[in-house]
Amino acid sequence: MTRARLLLACLAGIAFQAFWYGPALASSTGRGVNDFLNFYTAGKLAFSGHLYDPQTFIATEASVTGYSTANLIFVRLPWQAALFWLLARLPYFPAYAVWQLLCVSALFAAFYLWPYGSRQSKLLAAAWSFPLFTSLAVGQDVPFVLLAISAAVRFRERYPVLCGICQALCVAKVHLLWIFVLVWLGWDSKPRLAAFLSTGGVLAGLCFAAGTWNWIPQFLGALRFCEQHEDLSVMPNLHRIFAAAPTLEGIAALVCAAAVFLAARKDRSLAAAAALAAGILTGRHGFIADCSILLPAAGLVAVRVPEARKALLLILVPLTYLPSFFAQPLATTLVIASLCFGSAYAALTFRGPEKNEAMR
């Protein structure tokens, strides 16, 4: 593909998604009325002892940003609020501009570090990924999560300490990435494990500094508050499907986890792909933007099972995710489940090189 055609293809992808969002890009994204409101307010309340108090959070958000997200409060770990403390020293709109610049930079870094695929395929994946476009539109921190995943994949064998650090940073979305962390971390490298635990210790210290000594019960209370006001209709996960049957949800989640860990005994890279998909399925709180982590999952499968590349286009095309905007996420959930169990099955039946050869 010539550079001109590549540019046109990328612009077509961006234009399609911008057209879909339409006026929302100006009314919300352009004015910063999105998830960054939550992050900025968390930065303001870091180290105050009121990070997870709903009334204080909502009142502070309205006073420092001019907007209020009503029943949405900060439900990340306190160390993330500590990272937003510096941005929160700026007025809201300059801070938002810096945040979007950082997100785009992290996205470029993530695709640069990803060790597989051509530059063309990476650019096309970025331009046509609806979840990725959504993450930027809503001011999410997904680009930094992708950066941590890409770095962990690239550095696993040659730079185990860097891999361990990046694995620890994946706890930014621990509800989605805990299975991936367990599978990819492994127990075969003491430097990698030591780096993971050391970084985890630093983040734990930041939690107690930014959230004060009793942040854990406050955090759990914030989670319960959000569950009372969550919108399940757009979540492409098991929690949405089995909302009225928590026992079935638990059983389905265990099946997903079991499939991943069985696959990890045969092929770590395919198991990691299954783990990323399983994280979306089993996480109780996940949206379309979070489906961006399916990009590295598809990349890992494409490396190990090249004949599956055409099927993996379902992870890329926007039509897979559009039903979720109409409160009908079942089609998206089925695609994610297919990636999860398809990757696990491929790992269990794979007859190629040794399981870690592709990662060296």
Tell me what you see in this structure.
Helix content is 67%, strand content 0%. With 360 residues, it is mainly alpha-helical. The radius of gyration is 20 Å and the shape is globular. It has 2 domains: 207 residues, no CATH class; 129 residues, no CATH class. Helix 10 runs parallel beside helix 12 and helix 15 packs antiparallel against helix 16. The C terminus is likely disordered.
**Got a strand count?**
0
Question: How would you sum up the global shape?
Answer: globular
Question: Would you tell me the overall average pLDDT?
Answer: 89
Mind summarizing the main beta sheet?
none
Number of individual domains: 2
Helix content: 55-70%
Percent in strands: under 5%
Brief overview:
This protein is mostly helical and about 350 residues long.
Compile the SSE list and pairings:
Elements: H1 3-21, H2 24-29, H3 36-45, H4 54-65, H5 78-84, H6 92-113, H7 119-128, H8 130-137, H9 142-155, H10 160-169, H11 174-185, H12 190-211, H13 215-229, H14 238-241, H15 246-264, H16 268-282, H17 294-304, H18 313-316, H19 330-349
Helix pairs in contact: 1-7, 3-4, 3-5, 5-12, 6-9, 9-10, 10-12, 11-16, 15-16, 15-19, 16-17, 16-19
Keywords:
360 residues; mainly alpha; 2 domains; 19 helices; 0% strand; globular; disordered C terminus
